[in-house]
Fold:
Amino acid sequence: MGDLRPASLDTGARRDDSELLRSDAPPRDVTVLVTGFGGFKTYATNPSWLIARQLERVLPPIIDPNNPSRPVGPTIHLLVYPEAVRVSYPTVFSIIPKILSDMPSPVDYILNIGQAAGRKYYSVESLAHRDGYKIRDVDGNLPTVEEKYWKNEARLPEILRPDLDTEEIFARWKTNVDGEVDVRLSTDAGHYLCDFIFYTSLATKQSRTEEKKALFLHVPGGTDRASIDKGALAATSLIRAMVGDGSVTEHNTEITYAEDDANGIMSPS
Structure:
């Protein structure tokens, strides 16, 4: 399934984390698994995968300008799955548990990224659905078997939510992007593969008796360089907000909710 070691162990690491840490600030490394989807329907190239593979593999701690000798927050290691995930219910159902079980130690957070072609903004999803999937995947399948497993064997609820304060994360995210990106909070992941992989990530975390620290990021459909760069900024800023690495939070930030795009306007995944 490819090398999912933290980038600090890879030859592509861009800096030595130890240079950013002082003797009075021991490392507090955090790992984040990131996935992106492959093509589907009329979209041969999925921007979610282009964004995921472009991300810096190590996000160093924030440096407080008022106290530059002491970094704030952990070093964040991004474990980007090395292939675009097939837009297939059986693939997603099997691959997320396999990735997590193959890890030498538990992954702290998960960020799944997918495309919402009808949207011009970036949205973080706040919940995922167990069933109600009526759109076939790229192989013509519906997740009938998977839905039955979750409902009857795993006895999971219809809706799963992350063990994270999504409104607080959104406030930090909006502050982090500082107006460069239109970001919103969403309560409808679309009942397609985006919703499905989000539920699978949360369900897998729960089955492993781990905190459900997972989020889903919907990105617009643009695949040009400017769009991918903007998507990478949105994703990196969301990861920092999710981890809570010392970024400033605007507690009075107005929550901007995504439009209801699930009824035909949006092409999720």
Summary: The chain has six helices and eleven strands. The longest helix spans residues 225-243. The helical segments are 47-54, 89-102, 144-153, 166-177, 193-207, 225-243. The radius of gyration is 18 Å.
